Amino acid sequence: SVWIALFCLQYEKTLADDAEKAKCLDLAAAISRWVSSLPHKDGAVAMGLPNPFGSPDYGNTYSTENNLDYYTLTKALSVKAPTLSDRELFTGEFSNLNNWLKTMAYDPNSGLFRSGGSVNFGDGQWVWDSTKSLDVNSWAISTIGISTLISEFGVNMDSFLTNIHQTFAVQDDGSFGG
């Protein structure tokens, strides 16, 4: 759904008719309001509605990639949303996402973004997925931007790119590593 809203924002830029532009912004804002109603944990937004019997329970699963998508959307709508109340909502969502991405999703020990995690049903504690994901790290560069990663996140880009290469480069024998 976030990708549809992002499409609406891109399509809106190509339109000349103000009424058609407004329809695009209205749809993007409506989708974003729905996303804002999903479960949140420490600023991140779950992948979907809660379904305790689902496997996985998307209402309990937090994807960094999905949160990067929503980060991009809320950043744009915090300025472009049609109503003040929506702009305020998306400004708050963006701020919370920015904080989660900076303080939780980015792991300074590995020098990479984590792929995501979930909340443990037993004790309610956060559990990070140990899977390393190239797309999350490359997408972080695209969505957050190099200058913001450096200035606000404190990421050393040389180290970040070296970590990406050492973790995900495919060798001649098909193994991973730099």
Description:
This protein is mainly alpha-helical. The protein is 56% helix and 10% strand. The chain has seven helices and seven strands. Strands 3-6-7 form a three-stranded antiparallel sheet. Strands 1-2 form a two-stranded antiparallel ribbon. It has a two-stranded antiparallel sheet with strand order 4-5. Strand 4 and strand 5 form a beta hairpin. The radius of gyration is 18 Å and the shape is globular. The relative contact order is 0.11. The model has no long low-confidence stretch (mean pLDDT 93).
Summarize the structure.
This protein is mainly α.
Question: Which key terms come to mind for this protein?
Answer:
two-stranded antiparallel ribbon; globular
Number of helices: 7
How much of the residues is beta strand, in percent?
5-15%
Distance between the termini: 36 Å
Low-pLDDT runs: none
What level of helicity do the residues show? 55-70%
Backbone CA Rg: 18 Å
Secondary structure class reads mainly alpha
Overall form: globular
Number of strands: 7
Instruction: Describe the strand arrangement of the main beta sheet, using strand numbers.
Output: 3-6-7
Mean pLDDT metric: 93
SSE arrangement, N to C: HHEEEHHEEEEHHH
For the largest beta-sheet, the strand count, sense and barrel status come to:
3 strands, antiparallel
